[in-house]
Design a protein that fits this description.
α2 packs across α3 and α8 runs parallel beside α9. This protein folds into two domains: about 210 residues, Tandem AAA-ATPase domain (Rossmann fold); about 220 residues, P-loop containing nucleotide triphosphate hydrolases (Rossmann fold, 3-Layer(aba) Sandwich). The protein starts with 10 loop residues before the first helix and ends with a helix. It is α/β, with parallel strands linked by helices. The protein is built from 23 helices and 18 strands. The longest helix has 19 residues. β12 and β13 form a beta hairpin. The protein is about 40% helix and about 20% strand. The strands form four sheets. A seven-stranded parallel β-sheet has the order 3-4-2-5-6-1-9, sandwiched between helices. Strands 10, 11, 14, 15, 16, 17 and 18 form a seven-stranded parallel β-sheet that branches. Strands 7-8 form a two-stranded antiparallel sheet.
């Protein structure tokens, strides 16, 4: 039987599907919003049309976006195939599965199993279910937002590369950027596809493409290898080129341009100035006392300073304290000049709750929806309400939960109440509202406390600079001071 997608593909999707063409291992590096999901589902339909095709599809995706695959399956599969295919989504204690995973494992194909990658770190039953699903020997395994397996030593990465990669007949990775933070991020992604592409040893790979230097670390002066730069990067991208397909959004879609407004300055309160000054002085003395200063140490101190700017501080006993801030007033002023829907990004749970509380006070209880780790069980209902209810104008989301895979084109204003330090999160979150289906220019506004780490973070992210690779032990003062 031949199946037809409910929507005709764009030209870049046709080109991508031609490149896939039954390849055992392949990477789709397509910008966010360009339809990677449809390409995978079209390929699955082609397999299901064959008597001897790969009739099972395993989707592994981050918790913040894996539920979107259920919607995409309904949107793109031929209705006849959708009626025949059995779909189950792994549940991590919340939500309702459209079919239990246990039921799916006892079915015959075609079948689709959707699992959040976080469950593959620690949940034994999730791992066992994935293995049992794949043992039928006819699975295409897809890692969506594949930078989630970039760390070679992470438990999820080891499971995905060894078991998911080892048991699947066909492998696909999907990502908007192949290496948003470091060229070394590519290794584990391609190890999952086929270790022959980049070689069987991460150490050899790192030595080939990273500039290493021995430096003392800690009070004892123990010598460790530190990555100080990269080399042979053009050769690396030529190596993966035959096994990947790359397109930017500008090449694929006719979208209105993004509009970046000058950052909105937030004046610090007297309490913030005092606490910020004390923490900065303490952080500087702590760093100067270290035998070897690492980027992670500098970022840890920047995080403490950044929290003060966002209205809270955690003491040595782990107790969180409110710090009076003008940030909420500035946010309300920006929103007062906008009549449509808006997405407000904030990277701390405290900020999410504070913003939602203030907006409800200003605009009514029904005006706000939230999307973050703290409401994992109800955030999809909040998202649905924000999309469908004209009274619900504001979606307050964390970059960690919402920046991957979601389509929020209802908003044409995006405000960063606060940023985290991840370039990938920034780029992904920007494109939640700037993607296929958007008919307006999207305006972006950052709230910033000038003369602070806030300004450094925003400047780096807007200029597509990854902080963890930009900061070195020798330049910490220019980031903290």
């Amino acid at each position: 039987m031949n199946y037809t997608s409910r929507h005709a593909p764009y030209s870049h999707q046709v080109e991508a599907e031609a490149r896939l063409n039954g390849a055992t291992s392949f990477a789709l590096f397509l910008d966010m919003g360009t339809g990677k999901t449809k390409i995978i589902l079209d390929e699955f339909q082609q397999e299901c049309a064959k008597a001897d095709g790969l009739h099972d599809l395993l989707i592994v995706a981050p918790a913040g976006s894996y539920s979107n695959w259920v919607t995409e399956i309904e949107e793109h599969l031929d209705p006849r195939l959708r009626q025949a295919v059995k779909v189950a989504k792994w549940r991590s204690g919340h939500g309702k599965s459209i079919r239990s995973v246990g039921e799916l494992l006892d079915e015959i194909g075609p079948r689709i199993l959707i699992v959040n990658v976080e469950a593959l770190s620690t949940v034994l039953v999730a791992k066992e279910s994935v293995i049992k699903f794949m043992k039928a020997g006819r699975t295409t395994a897809v890692i969506d937002e594949s930078t989630s397996i970039k760390s070679p030593t992470a438990r999820r990465t080891r499971f995905v590369t060894r078991f998911v990669g080892g048991l699947s007949k066909r492998r696909r990775i999907l990502s908007g950027l192949p290496s948003p933070n470091s060229p070394l991020d590519l290794y584990s992604q391609f190890e999952f596809l086929d270790q022959r592409i980049l070689g069987p040893s991460y150490s050899v790979f790192r030595n080939r493409y990273a500039v290493m230097q021995r430096k003392p670390f800690g009070p004892g002066g123990r010598m460790i290898d530190v990555v100080t730069g990269f080399k042979n990067v053009p050769h690396l991208f030529e190596t993966i080129k035959p096994h990947s397909f790359r397109k930017t959004k500008e090449e694929c879609l006719d979208l209105p341009p993004k509009v970046y407004m000058p950052p909105r300055e937030v004046e610090l309160t007297p309490d913030q100035r005092r606490i910020y000054r004390e923490i900065k002085e303490d952080a500087t003395s702590r760093i100067e006392g270290e035998a070897h200063v690492t980027a992670s140490l500098v970022i840890t101190q920047m995080l403490r300073l950044h929290q003060v700017l966002c209205g809270h501080v955690t003491d040595e006993d782990g107790v969180e304290h409110e710090v009076k801030t003008n940030r909420l007033d500035e946010l309300v002023e920006v929103l007062d000049q906008h009549s449509g829907k808006a997405v407000i990004w904030a990277n701390y749970n405290h900020s999410i709750r504070s913003v939602a509380k203030r907006l409800r006070e200003e605009c009514g209880d029904n005006s706000v929806a939230i999307f973050y780790g703290g409401n994992a069980g109800t955030r999809l209902e909040d998202e649905r309400r924000w999309k469908s209810d004209p009274e619900c104008r504001f979606l307050v989301a964390s970059q960690g939960a919402g920046s991957l895979g979601n389509t929020w084109v209802e908003a044409d204003l995006v405000i960063y109440y606060s940023n985290d330090f991840s370039l990938e999160h920034r780029m992904q979150s920007e494109d939640r509202s700037h993607r296929s289906g958007q008919t307006k220019s999207v305006t972006y506004v950052d709230l910033v406390a000038t003369g602070t780490v806030d300004e450094k973070i925003i400047s780096a992210l807007r200029n597509k600079i990854n902080l963890s690779s930009q900061i070195t032990g020798d330049d910490y003062k220019e980031w903290l001071i």
